[in-house]
Amino acid sequence: MAIIIDENKRVIIQGITGREGQARCRLMLGYGTNVVAGCTPGKGGQEVQGVPVFDKVAEAMEHAQINHAGPVDISVVLVPAKFVKGAAIEAIKAGVKLLVIVPDRVPLWDAMEIAACADKHGAQFVGPNTLGVISPGKAVVGMIGGRAESAKQWFKPGSVGVISRSGGMSSSTAYYLGQAGIGTSTICHVGGDSVLGLRFPDVALMFQNDPQTQAIVIFGEIGGSMEEDLADLMQQGKVTKPVIAYIGGKAAKEGTRFSHAGAIIEGGKGTHAGKVKALTEAGATVVDSFGDLPAATKRAIGHF
Amino acid sequence: MKIHEFQGRQILADAGVPVPAAAVIESIEDAATTYKQVVNEAGLGDQGLAVVKAQVHAGGRGKAGFVKLVRSPAEAEDAARFMLSNKMVSVQTGPDGLDVNKLLIAAGVEIAHEYYLAITTDRKSRRNVLIASAEGGVEIEKVAAEKPDAIITEPIDPLMGLQGHQARRVAFALGFKGKQVSQAVRIMLNLSRVFASKDCTLAEINPLIVTPATTDHPDGQVLAIDAKFSFDDNGTFRHKDIQSLFDPTEENAAEIRAKKFGLSYIALDGNIGCLVNGAGLAMATMDIIKLHGGEPANFLDVGGSATEEAVTEAFGIILSDPQVKGIMVNIFGGIMDCAVIARGIVNAAKLLGFSVPLVVRLEGTNVQAGRAILKEGAMDLPTLQAADDLADAAEKICQAV
Q1: Are A152 and A31 in contact (CB under 8 A)?
Q2: Is B335 in contact with A146 (Cβ distance < 8 A)?
Q3: Fewer beta carbons within 10 Å, N or C terminal of chain A?
Q4: Which CATH number fits domain A156-304: 3.30.530.20, 1.10.10.10, 3.30.460.10, 3.40.50.261?
């Protein structure tokens, strides 16, 4: 099993002919991802590393139906930030149900429009500003791992799901778990922006329903309410698998507040202490130091 | 990106939100004439009430004495003299305070009632939300915490924008009556329109007021007295007009210097400088320094694709802080090449010299080459210690300072 991505999912890359698109295509193909097509308007008919390129997502969809026995499952969006909204909405309207939006610096407003469009069409997305998702030993979408050789070296398949708000630390967390003999089912970097597609609670529910995953490791950060929302799900009994968490930013200076609006809307959520309290009360193991995650995870899943 | 109050007022006025007459001055000499011009424009007479406000991004102006009510040209000039020749020190500026270069002189208005009105992003629902309260003015956060029912929120559909019926619901819930309702509705709709069209992340009017009844305005007038705006940095590329409102004098000089090299730097109060790749790792590094009893002097993320020059510059920025008594370098190279970091360290040693202890932990991509470069440069790096992992590095640097 694993979540979001595996070797059978049909994947397209929007922006495949660009520098990023080509580099990440190499990673995905090299790691075993089933990349069935790419899209770049005006470059239809070309090929990138043997992958056919289409002008429109709808054409890629048709190609997948005819030649790969089913629709496109995931589109990895690798176009420049200012073109992300157009690309994402095109994919959603063409019927793609899951997008991985890699670029950073996507305007907040565009992310909100993408979210509204996705909700309307029953689609979901990871990101923006995400390194992507990898299910070790199966497939990767995005750029997590950098190159196929390093991704193969760093990540070991296993039974722990990783969810992270930090790109670098999603890899590091899985790497250190691997060094301690703990493999991972799927590693998901939800993205670093304030408006995101899949959030901690959404991904945690996917792990809850995934038979391969036995425990969930979280790299959280101060700000927002994703950690608290996950704690709520645990309190409601919707996430029952062990959760082991590290929340970064204990040492960060409390931001001098410019306005009251943010404080009103978040209702006191977002602090380090508040997140640790919410997760601990919900039954999660919260470690003080990032380096303690592997040992705490071992204890939580019961092999000492 | 934040802007000044006077710039925010202009945006409101351009969007059709009424604001009292006002003008900006930069010199003491202009205070008296500008005062006269503003009170006359507002029809208040020669000794009319006006307010002089320092134009800085930091809050706490009122308590610091940088917002003053004046009733004559002489009082306006005194207020201007005080604000333009003293540094403003408030809870938000730090003990050194900051220079004030611009003042807003605004016509005073009589207030029958104060309200709070804002639009900001709600991360959880992934849309913008209109927030309003009839208990505006001061301490709105206290109101929100103690009387949540006094806060009215209305989500804004990103595809449709704020709708008239939503604004009317809020206006009635705020207790507006008679002609106030259509005035308030227009303000909300105009505010939400400008919010959307300029890629705002915050628009706050605190207070929004109603003036007492007069013969001309039997229901009073609804006006915006203060304006706070901030903008999505990722969206400013499509707004040349907003870019031009950027005031570099309001930013930390070291942070601007860092930005030029693609570095993300935030100054803190401690004495251990940090150089890290990745924001998450930078945060974890600061946390572990604190866990070992140290205090981080900064947050510095060199990113994943920093050049040698940027790394050298990063050390320059860290060492320019006189409080720094030691530096910890923590690199876990997924994308970052350890050799680039190592060359940056050696260059910085040659250019600047490290007299303070330096603890380096390198791991990941091209780490062998990185370590070899440090070994070759050992002559220039007398204070260098290598560390095996994060905990080891934190322990070493905390002991060394």
Answers
A1: yes
A2: yes
A3: C
A4: 3.40.50.261
pLDDT in tens, B214-225: 999 999 999 999
Per-residue DSSP letter, B336: S
Q: Are A218 and A230 in contact (CB under 8 A)?
A: yes
> Are B80 and B25 a contacting pair, CB within 8 Å?
yes
CATH class of A1-130: alpha beta
Please report, for chain A, the start and end positions of each structural domain, with discontinuous segments joined by +. Answer: 1-130, 156-304
Q: Quick: pLDDT tens for B33-86.
A: 999 999 999 999 889 999 999 999 888 888 899 999 999 999 999 999 999 999
What are the structure tokens assigned to A29, written together? 């193909």
- The model's pLDDT over A118-133, given as tens digits with 9 standing for 90+, comes to 999 999 999 999 999 9
- What pLDDT score does A76 carry? 98
Q: Which of residues 54-113 of A touch B (CB under 8 A)?
A: 81-82, 105-113
* ipTM for the assembly: 0.89
Contact B329, B358 (CB under 8 A): yes
**Identity of residue B41:** E
Q: How distant is the Cα of A247 from the closest Cα of chain B, in angstroms?
A: 9
The pLDDT of residue A170 is above 90: yes
For the whole model, what pTM was predicted? 0.92
- How far apart (Å, rounded) are the C-alpha atoms in residues B349 and B380? 6
Q: How long is chain B?
A: 401
What single letter denotes the amino acid at residue B120?
A: T
Distance CA A35, CA A206 (A): 23
Query: What residues contact residue B204 under an 8 Å CB cut-off, 6+ apart?
Result: A259, A260, A261, B117, B118, B119, B120, B226, B227, B228, B229
Same fold, A1-130 and A156-304: yes
Which residues in chain A have their CB less than 8 angstroms from residue B288's CB?
289-291
Residue B69: enclosing H or E segment and its boundaries? strand B67-70
* Residue ranges, chain B, pLDDT below 70: 138, 333-334
B351's tokens: 């250019």
Residue from the list A171, A264, A290 with its beta carbon closest to the beta carbon of B144? A264
Which residues on adjacent β-strands are paired with residue B362? B331
Determine contact, residues B132/B174, Cβ cutoff 8 Å. yes
Averaged over A276-287, what is the pLDDT?
A: 97
A251/B296 touch (CB, cutoff 8 Å), yes or no? yes
For residue B366 the two structure tokens come to 């091209």
